[in-house]
Amino acid sequence: MKSYEVNFDGLVGPTHNYGGLSYGNVASQSNSQQSSNPKEAALQGLAKMKALMEMGFQQGVLAPQERPDVAALRRLGFSGSDAQVIERAAKDAMPLLVASCSASSMWVANAATVSPSADTADGRVHFTAANLNCKYHRSIEHPTTSGVLGAMFADPQHFAHHAALPAVAQFGDEGAANHTRFCRDYGQAGVEFFVFGRSAFDTRYPAPQKYPARQTLEASQAVARLHGLSDDGVVYAQQNPSVIDQGVFHNDVIAVGNGEVLFYHEDAFLETDKMLAELDAKLGKRGGNFQSICVPRSQVTVEDAVRSYLFNSQLLSRADGSMLLIVPEECRGNERVWQYLQGLTSSGGLIREVKVFDLKQSMQNGGGPACLRLRVALNQTELAAVNPGVIMTAPLYGTLTQWVDKHYRDRLSENDLADPQLLLECRTALDELTQILKLGAVYPFQIN
User: Fold this and answer.
1) How many CB atoms lie within 10 A of CB 424?
2) Residue 26's pLDDT is what?
3) Is the four-CA dihedral 162, 49, 250, 138 of positive or negative sign?
4) 149-153, 191-195, 402-406, 411-415: lowest mean pLDDT where?
5) Do 302 and 246 contact (CB within 8 A), yes or no?
6) Domain for residue 414, yes or no?
7) pLDDT grade, residue 28 (50/70/90)?
8) How does the average pLDDT of the chain come out, rounded?
9) What's residue 134's pLDDT?
10) DSSP label at 33?
11) Is the pLDDT reported for residue 27 higher than 60?
12) Catalytic residues
């Protein structure tokens, strides 16, 4: 039975703004307080989805969250009508309002960790929503994330959904941004690769000194248990604390993997040789031929990688067996990175082509091509069981671009977040979107 890696890209929400909320994310902090363009952001993301669909890749879309999150503000003591809650938060605690308006759910690489049926004990595709408890504005996402994923992957015969891990620092979980999977074929048993920044309980593991390590070893181990993964199909690796302190807040900022290939920076991990040997041995036992591409620091520095988001790219397997790398425009703008990529693709190696996309609105807030997609490996039967409304087609692309043009603003500043009309605009847009995507009632305002 044929299997596919389906990329479900996050649809950028109507409140996309540059709040500078993510300490440790250099781009997010450096562009704080600038005016954003939600309409352009959404259209840029949709253009990438359409392009990949037209290249023959399976492509889906994942809906954004309701923002501002009035319910979250109520839990923090603001009362009255929805409009009064927003007005009072703007007056008394503007940073909380900004956090409650964040459109960060667009980066669905953090939505969940996904294990395909070939790896799990019960032969179902497993989803665990990420708690994202390191940052308040993201920690409020997982209830709606779980609801949306449940509406997309609804058939319990094929799909299993787990609640987010306990929302405490010891189980900090950032989802697929710190997880990848290696396999000979998407439908065959593979090796799941969990990368952590620190251990909550074992002091033998060093921790970064400047920026927080968001993923714990204990969270990764818990997800592996929930998904019913076997020990011979899992590898854990620690991210290099020094690169976290240079702005590598997730592993997908310094490494990307797909199929049998890991593309990574020389400074990405601790005990790299040991990790590579374990991946090679475990994938070999499952019929795979593990291969790695190391980018030396002498050619691309960690700073270059962070500024260009070279590794926050999509590594895609094409029908002829070659690989395609999807990178942001910022890679072409960095001389050293672009020179490296030109040499990489001309060498006749594993990665044969690089395609560049303009994702400036997302990039300025700290998320590139890889941040914008959640990868789900599905066989034909499972793909047929996915809610068809979320699978990208040419007609759906046309409908969604019209929807964005109708509902989104082309400029948004911090002061605009205090406008109660923005909440009404967002709810009107999302109510229509759930009908377009055939999701049913997944948002609090539709349920309560």
Assistant:
1) 12
2) 46
3) negative
4) 411-415
5) yes
6) yes
7) very low
8) 94
9) 92
10) T
11) no
12) 174, 250, 371
Quote the distance between the C-alpha of residue 133 and its chain's center.
15
* Residue pLDDT, tens place only, 395-416: 999 999 999 999 999 999 988 9
Cα–Cα dist 332/312, whole Å = 14
Query: Residue for token digits 């839990």?
Result: 75
Helix and strand tally (H, E) in the chain? 18, 15
Q: Please indicate, yes or no, if residue 80 is contained in any of the structural domains.
A: no
Buried b (16+ CB within 10 A) or exposed e, 270-303: eebeebbebbbebbeebebebbbbebeeeebbbe
Rounded Cα distance, 30 and 20, in Å: 7
Query: Can you tell me the distance from the alpha carbon of 269 to that of 274, in angstroms, rounded to the nearest whole number?
Result: 10
| Mean pLDDT value across residues 436-446 | 96
Q: Are strands 373-379 and 314-317 parallel, antiparallel or unpaired?
A: unpaired
Taking the CA atoms of residue 118, residue 119, residue 125 and residue 130 in that order, the dihedral angle to the nearest 10 degrees is -150
Contact 327, 321 (CB under 8 A): no
Give Cα separations from 37 to 105, 399, 409 (angstroms): 16, 20, 7
Question: What are 433's two structure tokens?
Answer: 């979107």
Kindly state whether residue 96 falls inside one of the protein's structural domains. Answer: no
Q: pTM of the full predicted structure? A: 0.95
As a whole-number percent, the residues of the chain with pLDDT over 70 amount to 97
Q: State residue 21's pLDDT score.
A: 56
Task: Provide, for the chain, the percentages of residues in helix, strand and coil under a 3-state DSSP scheme, each rounded to the nearest 5.
Answer: 40, 20, 40
Residues 258-311: tens digit of each pLDDT: 999 999 999 999 999 999 999 999 999 999 999 999 999 999 999 999 999 999
Domain assignment of residue 97, yes or no: no
- Domain containing 265 — which CATH number? 3.75.10.20
Total residue count of the chain as it appears in this document: 448
Chain-centroid distance of CA 363 in Å reads 13
Closest CA to 373 of 61, 124, 81, 165: 61
Domain tally for the chain? 1
Domain that holds residue 395: 3-67+102-447
